[in-house]
Amino acid sequence: MVFRCFVEVGRVALVSFGPPAGKLVGNVDVIHQIRALVDGPCTQVRRQAMPFKCQQLPDFILKFPHGVHQEYLRQAWQKADINTKWGATRWTKKIEARAKKAKMTDFDPYKVIKAQKMSNRIIKLEVRKLQKAALLKASPKQGPTTTGVGAVAAADLGPKAKVPAKTVRAAGKKAPAQKGAGQKAAPPKAHKGPKTPAQKVLALKTSGKKS
User: Fold this and answer.
1) Beta-carbon neighbour count of residue 116 at 10 Å?
2) If phi over 0 gives left and psi between -120 and 50 gives alpha, with beta otherwise, what is residue 193?
3) Widest CA span of the chain, in angstroms?
4) CA 175 to each of CA 164, 169, 171: distance values in angstroms, whole numbers, following the listed order
5) 27 pairs with which residues across the strands?
6) Quick one: which of 59, 72, 78, 145 has the fewest CB in 10 Å?
7) Of the candidates 40, 21, 22, which has an alpha carbon nearest to the alpha carbon of residue 91?
8) In angstroms, how far is CA 151 from the centroid of its own chain?
9) Rounded to 10 degrees, what is the CA torsion of 15, 17, 23, 29?
10) Alpha helices, DSSP H only, in 6-148?
């Protein structure tokens, strides 16, 4: 990893610990390999020598010569609008969130959890509404008449006559042949079985007439 931020003249630094912790300062001059002269005219930090290990380096740098007066540093600071830029960084937001979490009581985490659950529920309901609306828009309701391929198939087949239920027969059985208009219907066949005495007498009389 290549370092891009170095302690140099004009470099803006965040004080990590000590009395001015959490405030921004500007490096006015480098004293030696472990200390630098810093000043914070816009953050109420007096000019003093500070070790490098107390500094965290953001990506802000000012252009001025080493050992400048406090008023010159203030003008350069305000011209670059360092305070506004620093307030818009993620670094500042994390520091604020950490400080807010440290001040929370035992009941505050419970309220945060309940608020998150409510927000998640509202989001899920809105997502479901959008999904339903998208489905209705993608597939509108079909009317009573068929359209497309179904309509073409129905037109090709044409109206089918309904077959009466009495004419339907099981598979393998043949339907009886229909007779013409001039033919008479055959008489019903006699029931085979033991003949009565009257039937026997009638049969003898008919046989005698034929002979």
Assistant:
1) 10
2) left
3) 163
4) 14, 8, 11
5) 38
6) 145
7) 22
8) 37
9) -30
10) 70-80, 82-87, 90-102, 107-138
Ramachandran region, residue 172 (left: φ > 0; alpha: ψ -120 to 50; beta: rest): left
DSSP letter, residue 17: S
Task: Name the pairing type of β-strands 35-40 and 45-51.
Answer: antiparallel
**How is residue 21 written in tokens?**
């912790």
Residue 50 CB coordination number (10 Å): 21
56's CB contacts (< 8 A; 6+ apart) are 13, 14, 15, 16
Pairing of strands 45-51, 55-56: unpaired
- What residue has token string 């085979």? 192
Strands 24-30 and 35-40: antiparallel
Residue 156 parent element (H or E) = helix 149-157
Return per-residue pLDDT of the chain as tens, 211 residues.
577 788 899 999 999 998 999 999 999 999 999 999 999 999 999 999 999 999 999 999 999 998 899 999 999 999 999 999 999 999 999 999 999 888 888 898 899 899 999 999 999 999 999 999 999 888 866 554 555 555 545 555 554 444 444 444 544 555 555 555 555 555 555 555 666 776 776 777 676 555 4
